[in-house]
């Protein structure tokens, strides 16, 4: 038992018990602990900076300014959080039937489809939204990452006429063989045209339209569109750029989106 006299004198009693530490030592340790906790809280609130190397690399690969790239990178994180927090891919474990969920930071197909509609006003058919996703997903891993997002948007929002022609041709070339075939044009137009129930053969009108398009755009008359055919036709008539379905935002939406980048916190 520690007596009052023992506490005051700071000596051990006969059984070797220690005195209570003086109040000033206790207060000092509490202060140190409090400062450590506050420091930890402050560090947890500090947002990681965007890598200067990433900014420099994207600046060289795109038509964005460095300030716009910083804004796009910040916006990327916000939009990923808004459209699903984290994109995930499920991989079956080899040793069991359980599924392992691996979080991946970026847009998956479903999130990106919603983003195209809500942020860019692109309400096209799934066949085209999937092609647009593939254009952005340069790694072909099913996720649009931060750098892919910025590089894709460079063509999407600031592309030259030649870049936009190449982009739309890539979107419409469904099997990636370097040609937009008659069958591909039919598939694209069939999905985007409104069908009337009273029509005996609703596809007949689509086939007629495909023939009209080929007569107008197929310069070498081989029943398919090469990039040269496509490019020549669009340079003569720019309205043909999205002839087979919407795959670019309007000029107004593009300008609004670009103007909003600098305000991202």
From TrEMBL:
Keywords linked to the UniProt accession: Calcium, Metal-binding, Repeat
SMART domains, per the entry: EFh
Superkingdom of this protein's organism: Eukaryota
Keyword hit for Calcium: yes
Domain EF-hand: 124-159, 160-195
Protein transport listed as a keyword: no
MF terms (GO), sorted A to Z: calcium ion binding
Annotated SUPFAM superfamilies: EF-hand
Region (Disordered) residue spans: 1-23
Record's protein name: EF-hand calcium-binding domain-containing protein 1 isoform X3
